[in-house]
Write a structure and sequence with these properties.
The complex is a heterodimer of chains A (284) and B (350). Chain A has 9 helices and 10 strands. Chain A is α/β, with parallel strands linked by helices and 284 residues long. Chain B starts with 21 loop residues before the first helix and ends with a helix. Chain B has helices at 22-38, 41-67, 75-92, 98-117, 125-145, 172-194, 198-208, 210-215, 220-247, 257-270, 275-300, 306-327, 331-346, and strands at residues 158-159, 163-165, 168-170, 249-250. The chains are: A alpha/beta (284), B mainly alpha (350). At the A-B interface, helix 2, helix 3, helix 4, helix 5 and helix 6 of A face helix 6, helix 7, helix 8 and helix 9 of B. The complex binds adenosine-5'-triphosphate and magnesium ion. Magnesium ion (MG) is lined by residues 62-63, 105, 196 of chain A. Adenosine-5'-triphosphate binds at residues 33, 36, 38, 56, 58-64, 105 of chain A.
Chain lengths: 284, 350
């Protein structure tokens, strides 16, 4: 299935996303684990070409929301529309073909593969050759392999990973692994990119660099982005619109300035301390 | 935006970047041209024949367990399926070339492998291992229960056919060795290529993080069943070599649970998810009892009988497994890498 290749000119520049096409529409999405309601009756819209932040205190349900959108969890209620296709639960095995890619709060790389191989796996959904064709290396298998390789190297280059291209990912520092995950997601040329705390556990310098890559993901790779991030400075600088969750409910939604001024947001989130700067252990 | 990324050391393990084919090629040339210069019948029949068959079985299991992460205790069952299928194709299909019988036998083993691989779609790790035991017992039971498979031979032990390839008969210890070697080389080259393709990357992706693999677009269910299919094909053909080129009889008893464990131990000791590890592990498992018996007789004389040998061998293999699991989980292959790296670091040129 071909991916929709969005044209930047269509939405006429980054910030005027208001009139652009809707790429993701959640209506009344609810998910609970046993007695715990992780997200409750959430509506969320993401327009094409937008960087859409989701913030909120720990346990607010941000990751759960991304897991529901990417088909990792199935919601109890509500609908999720990807483009024009409406799902009661998104099929995880099809999200790549639907043009969705994601990163994970706690790294989910393939430790036994090198950086290059991890990134190449991000194109698995585009492969149609059989293993026999691949082993012999003929025809479409050869073309696919060359195409996968070229695109992977281009993304590796764009994310400044060239020097570690052939390293096993498990041997790399945490911040670099986070970048590899972004590369693996980007290489599939998603129209919707879901980033779950891409800057968690990073140094200030690394965060800055990652912020640049997030912008590049939209501006050069034409992805619309859902971004979960605790660093409020980063969020305010990057996003077009921000949704704020608290205890599984959406308590505010709007432009950075509007959200910053919202009293409920200040009470629930901005005013209180949270653990955004705790350096997480890499999941070695 | 600045492009100053964190300074990272150049890959310390330059080993990954060195061309990987010259060494295996040298080994293959040596196996064809070097070994026959000095090999005795004993070396061919008692050491190399089982070594080649077990190596191939271990290559097959490594694809399933080492690469794709699906634990199996049914290897010997798939060897048995291969051996009996090849025997029956050869016996019952008039004029079918031996190589075709072997390929068909591999395909039958493949099909059986996929059936017993179906639980892998729901089960993981220990539970999957237990469910593959079903293959082990079911296949052994079927082959002993229905004597059609052994052509109603009262003893259940049947002579293997001659190794006839397009009119040329591989005879004698050297001939059988060349036959086994060629089959092993062909399938090993196939396996070594396979693990470097997208399919091979999919195996590892499914093993390392099934959810991330699925979301990245890896067809997880298909990939698991494909691993069972390819692995069982190779193990099935290894069973043919075991029966036709090593034992030269076909009997169900050699394909018992002990054999399944032996092949699992080979890949643990040799190194999971490496092709060469299968050969290192098989060499160790085949040579160990011989060395042990020599050493035992030398040290303890006639007191070291076959019972003691068998016991001490089990203890030693058990100890080795524990040592490897604790000290070198990546097996002999990784040990070899580390020694190579040491040597390279010591040499003044690098
Ligand atoms: N797999 C799960 N099983 C049980 N409970 C879960 C599971 N995943 C999330 N939860 C619960 O759902 C709630 C929301 O969790 P979620 O991970 O979505 O929060 P979050 O906003 O991403 O928090 P953080 O900022 O700490 O990442 C929490 O109470 C959490 O304990
Ligand atoms: Mg989270």
């Amino acid at each position: 299935m071909g991916l929709v290749s969005t044209n930047v000119a269509e939405w006429g520049g980054a910030k005027s996303a208001a009139r652009a096409r809707q790429i993701l529409t959640l209506r009344g999405v609810t998910l609970s684990f046993g007695g715990v309601t992780a997200i409750s009756d959430i509506d969320l819209d993401v327009a094409e070409g937008e960087i859409r932040a989701i913030i909120g205190p720990n346990g607010a349900g941000k990751s759960s929301l991304i897991n529901v959108i990417s088909g990792v969890y199935r919601p109890d209620r509500g609908t999720i529309a990807i483009g024009d296709t409406v799902f009661a639960d998104v099929p995880g095995s099809r999200v790549a073909r639907l043009g969705i890619a994601r990163t994970y709060q706690n790294l989910a790389l393939f430790k036994g593969l090198t950086v290059l191989e991890n990134v190449e796996t991000g194109r698995a959904a585009t492969v149609s050759s059989t293993f026999i064709e691949q082993v012999i290396g003929i025809g479409r298998a050869r073309r696919e392999e060359a195409d996968t390789r070229a695109r992977s190297e281009a993304v590796i280059d764009a994310l400044h990973l060239t020097s570690v291209r052939d390293r096993l990912v498990g041997t790399l520092p945490y911040g670099v692994q986070k970048r590899v995950e972004l590369a693996r997601a980007l290489v599939s040329e998603p129209r919707l990119l879901l980033l779950d705390e891409p800057m968690a556990g990073m140094t200030a310098g690394e965060k800055q660099e990652m912020a640049g890559f997030v912008l590049a993901a939209r501006d050069r790779f034409n992805a619309s982005i859902v971004l979960i991030e605790h660093d409020i400075g980063v969020v305010m600088g990057l996003s077009d619109r921000i949704a704020v969750l608290d205890y599984g409910r959406k308590i505010a939604d709007g432009t950075p300035d509007a959200v910053r001024a919202d009293q409920r947001v200040i009470d629930a989130y901005l005013g209180v301390a949270h653990d955004d700067d705790i350096i997480e252990e890499s999941n070695a | 935006m600045t492009t100053a990324s964190i300074p990272l050391p150049r890959p310390a393990s330059a080993i990954g970047r060195v061309p990987t084919w010259p060494l295996p090629l040298a080994v293959i040339v040596f196996a064809y041209a070097g070994i026959p210069l000095f090999a005795s019948d004993y070396l061919y029949d008692a050491i190399l024949a089982p070594f080649l068959a077990l190596s191939l079985a271990a290559v097959g299991l490594n694809i399933l367990t080492g690469y794709a992460g699906q634990v199996s205790l049914g290897s010997a069952a798939f060897m048995a399926v291969g051996a009996y299928a090849a025997y029956n194709f050869n016996l019952r299909v008039e004029g079918l070339p031996l190589l075709a019988s072997i390929v068909f036998a591999g395909l039958i083993a493949s099909a059986v492998g996929v059936v017993f691989g179906l639980p892998s779609l729901r089960l993981k790790g220990f539970y999957l291992a237990v469910s593959t035991l079903a293959a082990q017992f079911f296949v052994q039971w079927t082959l002993t229960k229905f004597s059609w498979f052994s052509n109603y031979n009262p003893s259940g032990v049947i002579d293997a056919p001659a190794l006839n390839v397009f009119g040329y008969v591989f005879e004698g210890p050297h001939g059988r060795y060349l036959f086994s070697l060629s089959v092993v080389v062909a399938l090993t080259v196939f396996a070594a290529r396979l693990v470097k393709t997208q399919t091979g990357r999919n195996f590892i992706a499914v093993r390392d993080n099934e959810t991330a693999a699925r979301i990245s677009g890896v067809p997880v269910l298909h990939t698991k069943l494909l691993a069972f299919a390819i692995s069982s094909f190779i193990i099935g053909v290894a069973g043919v070599l075991w029966a036709f080129a090593y034992l030269r009889t076909v009997e169900p008893h050699g394909f018992n649970l002990d054999r399944s464990f032996q092949i699992l131990f080979i890949i643990i000791i040799g190194g999971l998810a490496t092709i060469r590890g299968a050969f290192f592990g098989a060499a160790l498992i085949v040579v160990l009892p011989l060395v042990l018996s020599r050493a035992g007789t030398f040290l303890f004389g006639s007191y070291f009988d076959s019972g003691v040998l068998d016991m001490s061998q089990r203890i030693l293999v058990g100890a080795l497994i524990i040592v490897f699991l604790i000290a070198e989980p990546d097996g002999l292959a990784a040990l070899g890498n580390r020694i190579a790296r040491r040597l390279r670091l010591k040499s003044p040129t690098n």
